[in-house]
Amino acid sequence: MEEYPTDRDVALKSSLRWLKAKVKDDKCEGLWRIHDQLYDLSKFKHPGGNSWIELTKGTDITEPFETMHVQDIPQALLEKYRVRPADGPRRYRYTFREDGFYKTLKRKVKPILKRSGTDSSFQTKLIQDMLAFCFLFFFLALCKFPNLGLSILTGLCLGMCSSCAHNFFHQADYKSWRRFYFDLSFLSHRDWRVSHAISHHLYTNSLSDIEVSAVEPFIYFLPREKSFVQRNISHFYVYVFNFLGFPIEFVKRVFFVLSGEQELLIENLLPVLQLAILLFFNDLHTSFSVWFLYHCTAGFWLISTSVTTTHHHPQLYHAGDVPREDTDWGLHQLDTVRDVEKKNLAVVLTTFGDHLLHHLFPSVDHSKLPQLYPALYETCKEFKETYPFKSVPDMVLGMHKRISNTESKSFVRENKSNNLIK
Q1: 271 close to 295: Cβ distance less than 8 angstroms
Q2: How far is CA 169 from CA 166, 191, 351, in A?
Q3: Please, are residues 206 and 319 in contact by the beta-carbon 8 Å criterion?
Q4: What is the spatial distance between Cα 50 and Cα 47, in angstroms, rounded to a whole number?
Q5: CA-CA distance, 255 to 213, in Å (whole number)?
Q6: Burial annotation 228-239 (CB, 10 A radius, 16+ → b, else e)
Q7: N-term to C-term CA, the chain
């Protein structure tokens, strides 16, 4: 049974509040836990950037340790920072056995990525830079010619730019300055590193997934007792949430900064700078209206493409369902992620494509993921699993079925050949 996280139902949720609650629950005494050992990484110079170490202090980092590093970290290096065995078992059910699904897949993937590398390709960088350029071009046009159509077009460019930038904040700091494109929107890439990379990616559709709990109690994706409004009316206002999601997060961050709970990062001022530029050319009402509209449009694009076509379908596990007996982390991802087939890299980058492989190997650039499908399918065949792709209509309809669902579903495999949840 999954333990109920501290402060999961607090009224005002944030990435940093989630982290503080995780520190309480993980009981690592200010250290970093990996499997059943505690380490002091305070003096470790992390190649991916010290922000990853600072953010995770006092928590169990088994999942990010195993999944963010495609090539294994030498045990001798890790041993230098070991303090002592941890007290008690881990509170997370996921395992990484050498003969399990994930480690088997990882062994197949290592030589492929050793040859190709994991860094962003020229094409990935070009797509990201062109999306940022398009946003800036239409934004400047909007300053001079403020209107509804141009506001929506600017917002769509910003939404696609933000979706693409999400690819970069999973990567090492020194080679992913493009992650700051994400901060052109009302969101913060630092906060999303927590809510998305550390919470959602590692504990997908579980009680510890803040992207599930963030919309509660207004929208419940988990199977549980639901009110008439939650079962029926939320089908309509879920899209209102998608539209207003970005400004809601922006207002919450302003509140946390002003209350002293959260520090102000320099990149947080980028949306404010946009408003200031608009005010230079236009009156207050016009400037605020177009500024608000294009940020809402950006949010609608990013949230809709990420929520409706990736994780919420009746065939996908959610906390409250009966999980499979095998606790392998890779199998959990197989049970909680679905893909819509997308061949074009630009479409993949702007609509959260190749999503299962991205969850399994988050630090690998999206341009390098397609070459891993043969290894994935080979591993699935070896473990008698399947990974069927879905259509967009099927995923959207499935999301609405999940919203209405109140019954727990069993994901226990009756036998090894019965591997497809009906």
Answers
A1: yes
A2: 6, 10, 16
A3: yes
A4: 8
A5: 20
A6: eebeeebeeebe
A7: 23
Contact 65/202 with Cβ under 8 angstroms? no
d(CA 86, CA 341): 43
d(CA 129, CA 135) in angstroms, rounded, equals 10
Please identify which residue in the block is written with the tokens 């998305």. 196
Tens-binned pLDDT, residue by residue, of the chain (422 aa): 678 999 999 999 999 999 999 999 999 999 999 999 999 999 888 877 888 899 999 999 999 999 998 877 767 788 899 999 999 999 999 999 999 999 999 999 999 999 999 999 999 999 999 999 999 999 999 999 999 999 999 999 999 999 999 999 999 888 889 999 999 999 999 999 999 999 999 999 999 999 999 999 999 999 999 999 999 999 999 999 999 999 999 999 999 999 999 999 999 999 999 999 999 999 999 999 999 999 999 999 999 999 888 999 999 999 999 999 999 999 999 999 999 988 899 999 999 999 999 999 999 999 999 999 999 999 999 999 999 999 999 999 999 999 999 999 999 986 544 444 33
Helices (H), 269-372: 270-281, 284-307, 329-336, 345-350, 355-360
Contact 105, 379 (CB under 8 A): yes
> In whole angstroms, what is the distance from residue 172 CA to residue 46 CA?
9
Q: Which of 265, 306, 278, 319 is nearest to 16 (CA)?
A: 265
Query: From CA 131, how far away is CA 156, in angstroms rounded?
Result: 10
Residue 390, strand partner residues: 340
Tokens of 123: 């094409």
In degrees and rounded to multiples of 5, residue 354 shows phi and psi of: 45, 50
Which tokens is 147 given? Answer: 């209107």
Q: Which amino acid, one-letter code, is at 324?
A: R
Q: How far is CA 37 from CA 2, 79, 83, 370, in A?
A: 21, 10, 8, 35
CB atoms within 10 A of CB 414: 8
